[in-house]
Amino acid sequence: MKNKDNSHRRYLTLVSWITGMGSLLFGYNTAVVNGALGFMAKPSQLNLSPFAQGVVSSGLTLGAAFGAVFGSPLSDKIGRKKLLIWLGTLFTVFALGCGFAPNTGFLIASRFILGLAVGAASAVVPVYLAEIAPASERGKMVSMNQFLIVFGQFLVFVVNAILGSLFGSNAGIWRVMVSLATIPGIVLWFGMYAMPESPRWYATKGKFGEVLQVLQKIRTKAQAEAEAKEIEKKAKIDLAAAEEQASFGCIIFRTDNVKFFCITVLLLFSPFLRQNKRDGPQRQSN
């Protein structure tokens, strides 16, 4: 029995680390511009104006605002696992897109799409971890989401400092800084194929046989059967109540989500607004 418990615990640890790559990429991609922007702006590279620097910096966070709004209902529709696979693909492809960007417009577009992935990951990763974890481990597994966001930011600061110190004479080093995000992106992309779907998502679709199959991989037999019955009972209540709820589109545009989106956009554009404010006196003096 103890060996089985240890096996399930190790498997849950693997699930949390693979899924947590979405959180690590959240932190990495939001913070990487801190060290890369100075190199991007050099005349030998993209020769960014102050305005362009503001757009490059805020493009990802603007995309994240959209991704955060649409990520949750999309995961309800297609499943947590499938969405995380899609996000791993976006993180990988568009990190490379940023790294090989031939011009400013391509870089901004790539960072915006990365932002969509960042926002969606912020919505689906903690939900998936909470739904896959047993009650006794739920707090620890969900808190790992927050830890990996901050660790991703710390990691990219360290990576930027090392690369900037060793290869700062090469202005194109920023391309390496942004492209390194492909490594955890690939881990998330392919790793999620081996991860189970959320049993609670299966329950929302009435697939109660799959609920027990997933739980048997991550719980003991007795725990799996007891939890499957509990999930099925709650899901049937929720499915009955769902018939009276608003449509998919109404969920997206309900008042709370619209307020959240508007506030997020204002906050995320603040670096761009501050940049313009600093540049105003310079333009007047010229």
Written description of the protein model:
The chain has 286 residues and is mainly α. The chain is built from 14 helices and no strands. The radius of gyration is 21 Å and the shape is elongated.
Descriptive key words:
14 helices, 83% helix, mainly alpha, 0% strand, 286 residues
Compact overview of the structure:
This protein is mostly helical and 286 residues long.
- Please give the alpha-carbon distance between the first and last residues: 77 Å
As a percent range, the share of strand residues is: under 5%
Number of strands: 0
Rg, Cα atoms, Å: 21 Å
| Largest beta-sheet characterization | none
Secondary-structure element series:
HHHHHHHHHHHHHH
Number of helices: 14
Kindly state the percentage of residues in helix.
over 70%
Report mean pLDDT, rounded to a whole number.
85
Shape: elongated
- Strand-pairing-aware structural class: mainly alpha
Uncertain spans, ≥5 residues at pLDDT below 50? none
List the helices and strands and how they pair.
Blueprint: H1 2-31, H2 33-40, H3 50-78, H4 80-99, H5 104-132, H6 138-167, H7 173-179, H8 182-191, H9 199-204, H10 208-218, H11 221-242, H12 248-252, H13 255-268, H14 270-285
